[in-house]
Amino acid sequence: YTKDLKKTKVIGKVVRAICIMDHPIPNTNNVSSIQIILPQKQLNRNSDIYVTMVSSEHAVCAKGLYIAIVSTTVETNNPEAEIEPALKLLGNILEMFVSISDIHEPINDAKSENLFITKSYDATSHFESASLDVLAIYEQITGEKLDLNIEPSEEDDEF
């Protein structure tokens, strides 16, 4: 929504594959959800490859189906080939949807414009960078760090 305002710049691309399967990821003890990170150094890459799998236990697909999402930061002119090591882990894939998206970061003067823009989602599957971005924007707006270490009050102890 801010792209047309020229308040962000593209800093890279991310490739994502959403895969529908009729089985959990092989060799994972038939778990209903899992996160796997393929380390960059083991793959001779600059970025990790992320795999997340969820199932009907998470109310995201029909019973007996599994959804795996594979993502990484694009480093070559062949993004789909970059996620191949992760796709090989999945076993048979019934359907796959691949997208390549720009990664944007804000370039505006947020305080003077009173327009605070988050960065695009990166390739990580655990939302750590998105959470840190929200905390940074909170601090920009309020001038204070958000303290998430709130001690319960005596009233809370009664419940």
Task: Give an overview of the whole structure.
There is one protein chain. With 159 residues, this protein is an alpha+beta fold. The chain has one domain: Guanine Nucleotide Dissociation Inhibitor, domain 2. 21% of the residues lie in helices and 29% in strands. It contains five helices and five strands. It has a five-stranded antiparallel β-sheet. The protein is globular, with a radius of gyration of 20 Å. The termini are far apart. 18% of the residues are buried. InterPro entries: FAD/NAD-bd_sf (IPR036188), GDP_dissociation_inhibitor (IPR018203), RabGDI (IPR000806). This is Rab GDP dissociation inhibitor. GO terms for molecular function: Rab GDP-dissociation inhibitor activity.
- What's the total helix number? 5
What's the CATH superfamily, by name?
A: Guanine Nucleotide Dissociation Inhibitor, domain 2
CATH architecture: 2-Layer Sandwich
Helix content: 10-25%
Descriptors for this entry?
five-stranded antiparallel β-sheet; GDP_dissociation_inhibitor; alpha+beta; RabGDI; FAD/NAD-bd_sf; Guanine Nucleotide Dissociation Inhibitor, domain 2; Rab GDP dissociation inhibitor
Architecture blueprint of SSEs:
Layout: E1 8-21, E2 34-38, E3 49-55, E4 66-73, H1 79-82, H2 84-90, E5 95-106, H3 110-113, H4 128-142, H5 154-157
Antiparallel strand pairs: 1-4, 1-5, 2-3, 3-4
